[in-house]
Amino acid sequence: MYIIYFMLILKNMTYEGGIRVKFRSVFDIIGPVMIGPSSSHTAGALRIGKVARNLFGRRPKWAHIHLYGSFAETYKGHGTDVAIVGGLLNFDTFDDRLIRSFEIAKEEGLDYAFFIEQGIPDHPNTAKIVVGDELGELEVVGISVGGGKIEIAEINGFKLKLTGENPAIVILNNDRFGCIANVANILAKHEINIGHMEVSRKEKGKLALMVLELDENINNEIMDEIHALPNILQVARIVE
Q1: What is the pLDDT of residues 106-163, one digit of tens each?
Q2: Of 73, 101, 115, 158, which shows the fewest CB atoms inside 10 Å?
């Protein structure tokens, strides 16, 4: 029995530097501390909702939640719906209030609706969350990859890959020479190290999106400094 379990673990590991290390510790194998029956359908779903909330920068007034694949098939039984709404309320996976997400959302004035989609996604555990209020809206596509881990695949139609496991800033900017260097210079000035960076654009010279995963959270002053740069339109952050 133990040999079979160990073989299953090895099967789900990937190579990095010659060593198979998809799971970096025993805690990755066990899964996250959480309320709910499934690390992928509950904890992962919550984290997608929470990232959408962080990127929006405030509690939304409404949310349209589109579920695909396995999420669409089992969302009620596994608490995916409750978890995503809990994430939008900024709850953690172990928050006792999670089971009351619907009730609390109503109390706080968050209107939400679920849409079951028939399309076949690239990953079976996929959710598209569109949130908004009178000031604007945001669209986020996220996938739950297992063990409570997630990837954000799109923000407002921009393709990217964001894990949500590290502090990050997401910057919407005009696609102009020097934008990336200006942001990097500010972070270097404040001794903030960039762990991973991606840039996406729909068309040359138009809008672009920068995603920078950082080694630590940044404060409001640094956020304001980046926002004041030429051709920077919006700055949002994901805190650890």
Answers
A1: 999 999 999 999 877 777 889 999 999 999 999 999 998 887 889 999 999 998 888 7
A2: 115
**Of 162, 91, 78, which Cα lies nearest the Cα of 124?**
78
Is residue 25 scored above 60 in pLDDT?
A: no
Are the C-beta atoms of 152 and 141 separated by less than 8 Å? yes
d(CA 103, CA 106): 5
Q: Which long-range contacts (CB under 8 A, 24 or more apart) does 16-23 make?
A: 23/147
Residue 131 has a CB neighbour count (10 Å cut-off) of 25
Terminal C-alpha separation, the chain: 37
- Predicted local confidence at residue 240, as pLDDT: 66
Q: What is the bridge-based pairing of β-strands 168-174 and 194-201?
A: unpaired
Query: Which has the closest alpha carbon to 190: 147, 167, 169, 221?
Result: 221
Helix, coil or strand: residue 86: helix
Residue identified by tokens 């894990």 is 163
Q: Is the CB of residue 78 less than 8 Å from the CB of residue 95?
A: no
* Residue 131 CB partners (closer than 8 Å, separation 6+): 52, 53, 56, 60, 62, 63, 64, 88, 137, 138, 140
Identify residue 215 by its one-letter amino acid code. D
What is the pTM for the complete model shown?
A: 0.77
Closest CA to 222 of 191, 187, 194, 197: 187
Backbone angles phi, psi at 123, to 5 degrees: -130, 140
Identity of the residue numbered 73: E
Mean pLDDT, range 198-218, rounded to an integer: 92
